[in-house]
Amino acid sequence: MVDTSNQQIRIIMQKQFRVLGLMAFIGLLLLANCSFADDGYKLWLNYSKITDRTVAAQYSQQLKQINFAGNPGNNNVAKNELMHGVADMLQFAPQITTSGDAGLLVGTVKALPAGVVKNLQAITNDEGYVIKTMNIGNRKQVVIAGKTQTGVLYGVFNLLKLLQTQQQLGALNIAEYPRLERRVLNHWDNLNRTVERGYAGASIWNWHKLPGYIEQQYTDYARANASIGINGTVLNNVNANALMLTPEYLVKVKALADVFRPYGIRVYLSVKFSSPIEVGKLKTADPLNSEVRQWWKDKVDEIYKYVPDFGGFLVKANSEGQPGPQAYGRNHADGANMMAEALAPHNGIVMWRAFVYDSNPLNDRAKQAYDEFKPLDGKFADNVIVQVKNGAIDFQPREPFHPLFGAMPKTPLMMEFQITQEYTGFATHLFYEAPLFKEVLGADTYAAGKGTTVAKILETKPHPKAVTGIAGVANIGTDRNWCGHPFAQSNWYAFGRLAWNANQSSAQIAEDWLRMTFTNNKSFVQPMVQQMLQSRENTVNYMTPLGLHHIMGINTHFGPGPWVNKAERPDWTAVYYHKADSLGIGFDRSSTGSKATSQYAPQVQQLFDKLETCPDSNLLWFHHVSWNYKMRSGKTLWFELVHHYYEGVDSVRRLQTVWNGMQGKVDQEQFIAVKQLIALQLEEAIRWRDACVLYFQTFSKQPIPAGYEQPAHPLSYYRDQQFHFAPGIGGNI
Ligand code: GCU
Questions:
Q1: Nearest Cα residue to atom 12 of ligand 1
Q2: Strand partners for 106
Q3: Cis peptide bond prior to 211, omega within 30° of 0
């Protein structure tokens, strides 16, 4: 009896366990299903399973055996990335072999067999690589070769991109090298983890837990950057905290540098000019004072003990209240050269920013950087590079190229773009930045004759020791999808791609990104490439058409604020820039006005100076134009302006329609996220349009033409709207 009942209990329990087991299994399946949902964390390194059977079979055949020449070991990041990427996409682990006929052979030129190397194009650049398909016997072998491990890593990422975008491997012949040496992200991250102009959560640097706790996100950050060739990161805000240079933080900086090093990424720091006073307890920060100079030398020596390959300093001085050499009657070159002297023995560099403007902008803030820096051409030490924003004001949706490009032939200049969308819709608006970057990089300065594009100026070394470079203000934060908006990731991606080579097209970069991030489905990719390419112009239209600029809300820079007429300084108002009055609108920077056009080479000057030749897109940047001026389109300026504002909103509606048709083609979580963001963007675009049109109408005194929908509210409604705690203000901490 006892036995039987025990047996019965056992049977009942077994049944229950089976049920529980089944439930657990179903639970696991559900969980697994959830984890298939794409939350954007993987960025463009999604490595989704390749479902096209023919393609998968071809790739599997080619990649089933991989030979890593020189046996790079288990910690080799290129090897690990490749193994992981292939396993995810093809669902098997390739065999690692030393066999000569493996389908894929990977290594540095030194490690590869001489017989293979002699058939490859010579690699002269340390970061360069080749990928070549070779016929060996009756087998096709793909070879990835780099001069250095970093070159190999870049090659591996390119091969992974080819697989992700489902390209043929049968006849590859790729030879790549970066056109600029320093390709750097600038984080405007504060030590308290706020991010100045950051719209994607907190700073990813968890200073409090460093150096003991290394987040997985640091490695994934390095992977993402290396995949697009970014080789440097400035960890902290240009509005710097001097504490960054203390041992308390340097040990944390070292921990990050150690994570990034295998990915070819060097660490740089923003430094505060007054650090010798603030953390060095000196009485002055005068760059010509010998104690101050010694302090910087000692400090730099100390930094290199923590980080032997430290990149150097980024400095914002005498700008927006930051301390600088001018407080001691010295100039920017005096300040930069002092730091350069300390860094030179370690091969460090100084990236000295030209984003400067006085508290008294006289007649035109746009002229100030040129006025201060042009006379210093040739006066900077060899290891200084002057970092210039793309335009003379401040990362507006459209600005003509900065007049300093082309004006300092003896000084290396570095581009500063803003990836984070301070003035282009935060992380709410779909704004693909590649067309903006390319417009500036491709602009002809005529500095050394026709064809002296901004990109050429960046790439040309004014002296043999000069460094070349480009920086992008990062849009990265702790948001699960890194950048706040799924499409904002494309701006990080495009920045890296264009930093590598400015000749790549915006369309190609968008297409690669869409395929890698979402899907290879053509009915998704093709229309979305078009929408991305159009998106910059959409925002220009509903925010600042025809060359208008700096008409956003005060401080937070959120939303329209063309009426802003009071601020700490006149050039922080909107009226300073649009100058609307009963006669017309726009800032006269021509020879009849502030003469800012005279800062350009004569050919450019002539183009911008005359109303008749100035492109519509920059018209109100350079001219104060009468409301009834006949535009090229035949419309009056007023109608043209209204037309652009309405066109901006209509184009967001078109974007919305296209995106809504994408349900089912992309991951549902991503679909919903973007759908909601576009709805918000549309609301904000309508607010921009209606607020600006109603405000400017108070000067033009002309109607909104028939056929255009009338604004839903009077102007006072928009003026009174408040947006407390709009994100992005970090403070100097
Ligand atoms: C803009 C931005 C500031 C930033 C500054 C800079 O003015 O609004 O937050 O500090 O640029 O580039 O230094």
A1: 355
A2: 68, 144
A3: yes
Ligand 1 atom showing the smallest separation from residue 557 Cα? 8
- The predicted pLDDT at position 37 comes to 82
Nearest CA owner, ligand 1 atom 1: 394
Pairing of strands 384-389, 413-418: parallel
Q: Give me the residue label for tokens 């300073």.
A: 576
Q: What does the pLDDT read at residue 137?
A: 72
The answer to whether the CB of 197 is under 6 A from ligand 1 is: yes
Radius of gyration of the chain (CA): 28
Beta strands in 436-537 (DSSP E): 469-473
CA nearest 560: which of 550, 545, 546, 570? Answer: 550
**Separation of 197 CA from ligand 1 center, angstroms?**
8
| Measured distance CA(201)–CA(192) in Å, rounded | 13
Q: Tokens 């080749």 label which residue?
A: 130
Cα(572) to centroid(ligand 1), Å: 12
Ligand 1 pocket: which of 319, 352, 355, 399 to mutate (most atoms within 8 A of CB)? 355
> What do you get for the CA distance between the two ends of the chain, in Å?
77
What angle do the packed helices 332-343 and 290-306 form, to 10 degrees? 40
User: Which residue is it, tokens 């590598």?
Assistant: 500
Specify the pairing of strand 312-315 against strand 384-389. Answer: unpaired
Tell me: the pLDDT tens digits for 245-292? 999 999 999 999 999 999 999 999 999 999 999 999 999 999 999 999
Q: Which residues pair with 313 in a beta bridge?
A: 269, 350
pLDDT for 34 beyond 50: no
- Cα 128 to Cα 79, 169, 567, 699: the distances in Å are 17, 20, 50, 57
Cα–Cα distance for residue pair 353/401, rounded to 1 Å:
16
Tell me, in angstroms, the distance from the centre of ligand 1 to residue 634's CA: 39
| Residues carrying an active site annotation | 320, 394, 422
Given a contact cutoff of 8 angstroms between Cβ atoms, the answer to whether 44 and 519 are in contact is no
* CA–CA dist 85, 59 (Å, integer): 12
Read off the pLDDT band of 139 (50, 70, 90). confident
The pLDDT confidence band at residue 136, using thresholds 50, 70 and 90, is confident
Indicate if the pLDDT at residue 313 is higher than 80: yes
DSSP-based three-state secondary structure for 636? strand
CA of 729 to the centre of ligand 1 (A): 10
Ligand 1 mutation pick, 318, 322, 422, max ligand atoms within 8 A of CB: 422
Q: In the block, which residue shows the tokens 């970093």?
A: 150
